Amino acid sequence: MKCLIVAAGQGARLREKGELKPLIPIKGIPLIERVMSRVLEAGIDEFVVVSGYRGEELRRALDAFAEREKVRVTHVVNDEWNRANGVSVHKAKAVLGEPFVLTMCDHLVDPEIFRRLTAAPLESDTVTLAVDFNIGNPLHDPEDVTRVKCTNGRIEHIGKVIRDFNAFDTGVFLCTPVMFAALEESQASGDDSISGAMNVLARWQKARVFDIGDRLWIDVDDPVAFGKAESLLHAGRV
Fold this sequence. Notes:
single chain, alpha/beta, Spore Coat Polysaccharide Biosynthesis Protein SpsA, Chain A, two-stranded antiparallel ribbon
């Protein structure tokens, strides 16, 4: 199984820590390498990485990482990196014809989440999102995190501003190629985001959820979250 990592955006909110977000060191190791190492711990060693902003620099760094760690990295270029993240996922359609894991370049996730998600039964033509039902966890900014309304293992609605929700989106997905059809449907209606595609899948009754239980994750999206992530890493919790 391959892991698709979205790493095309500018990451302006973390600019004080470095010019290129995926390569910002956190406890001495570039953020995207931290992400990839957790995927590797889960037994996945083939990556597809979508780059955009300062893409040549990122691709050089990833090629060095791939050679050092003896893993395969396929590059996909998103020259529309200023659009929403669903565009980056859709750019990888040609190289992902089978089920794959999708994650973000700035989400540090307990490797056990990847292990359990990929071991769970996968229905054909569905996408499963790993969700966190602990919505009171102070690790996460409730005004910034993507919210999810789940019922009986299915997604009803997802978005940053929805009021009726019972879980958070961890940014980790187990996808089948139906994700690309949903992205196309969502983009046709004017929504370029991954969440837009998940809402399409919810309408199609093809959006599932996977409960991460007490496992931890954090979106390293701003200096406050960066500090929390450093503390978690120091304690060996992610």
